[in-house]
Amino acid sequence: MSDNAKKMAAEAALEYVKPGMIVGVGTGSTVNYFIDALATMKYDIEGAVSSSEASTQRLKAHGIAVFDLNGVSDLALYVDGADEVNRHKQMIKGGGGALTREKIVAAVAETFVCIADDSKLVTALGDFPLPVEVIPMARSYVARQIVRLGGDPVLRDDFVTDNGNVILDVYNLNIGKPIELEHKLNQITGVVTNGLFADRNADIVLLSDGKSVRTIT
Ligand SMILES: O=C[C@H](O)[C@H](O)[C@H](O)COP(=O)(O)O
């Protein structure tokens, strides 16, 4: 994994940004490169909607207007990173804890472009512990339910999401059927959402090794 690979994947996503657009912006170190690149087009676009306080701050620091998603009915493009992505363009996300807002913006967007260094491409999802955002008072209950599903949940230390919740990072889950597991986890009372982006997967994945960028469609 190299910073140059992240930067190249991020800059390649500019091709999907069109004049007048409001751009959906994800969260993380790869997206930070995208935000910096997007700043070069700030007079061409209308602005952005953001999936985290951190991305909002960075966008605003570049002078890019950030809109409330509730006022935006059509969002043509969402650009975000991933912790893992498979060849079906399904992902694990939430390493930075922004999974819920990311999933909301992704749900609204017409096209989801995932940007990543090529170390994120995996044959099977699941080496990366699956983040699950949980309402704080349900933490123990949800953890017990996840154990029943075969996972080993670990509370993320000293971390509160932008929504005021906690994160359980779940190890050793069998993610043989990602869409099924995504729905099953979301059925547990107290779960806000989980970091499987399998039902709403990416439409396009831009992967870089630091020398070139390849596209999975
Ligand atoms: O919550 C964070 C997000 O899902 C990120 O997009 C993900 O963790 C990848 O981040 P990075 O680009 O820093 O590897």
TrEMBL record:
Keywords per UniProt: Isomerase
Keyword flag Isomerase: yes
Active site (UniProt): E102 (proton acceptor)
GO molecular function per UniProt: ribose-5-phosphate isomerase activity
InterPro entries, A to Z: NagB/RpiA_transferase-like, Ribose5P_isomerase_typA_subgr, Ribose5P_isomerase_type_A
Enzyme Commission number(s) of this protein: 5.3.1.6
Domain of life of the native organism: Bacteria
Sequence positions that bind substrate: T27, G28, S29, T30, D80, G81, A82, D83, K93, G94, G95, G96, K120
Enzyme class, first EC level, given as a word: isomerase
CDD domains referenced in this protein's UniProt entry, alphabetically: RPI_A
Associated pathway: Carbohydrate degradation; pentose phosphate pathway; D-ribose 5-phosphate from D-ribulose 5-phosphate (non-oxidative stage): step 1/1
GO CC annotation: cytosol
Reactions mediated catalytically: aldehydo-D-ribose 5-phosphate = D-ribulose 5-phosphate
GO biological process entries: D-ribose metabolic process; pentose-phosphate shunt, non-oxidative branch
Any Pfam family the entry gives: Rib_5-P_isom_A
Protein family according to the UniProt entry: Belongs to the ribose 5-phosphate isomerase family.
Function statement: Catalyzes the reversible conversion of ribose-5-phosphate to ribulose 5-phosphate.
Subunit structure: Homodimer.
Descriptive protein name: Ribose-5-phosphate isomerase A
Species this chain originates from: Aliidiomarina maris
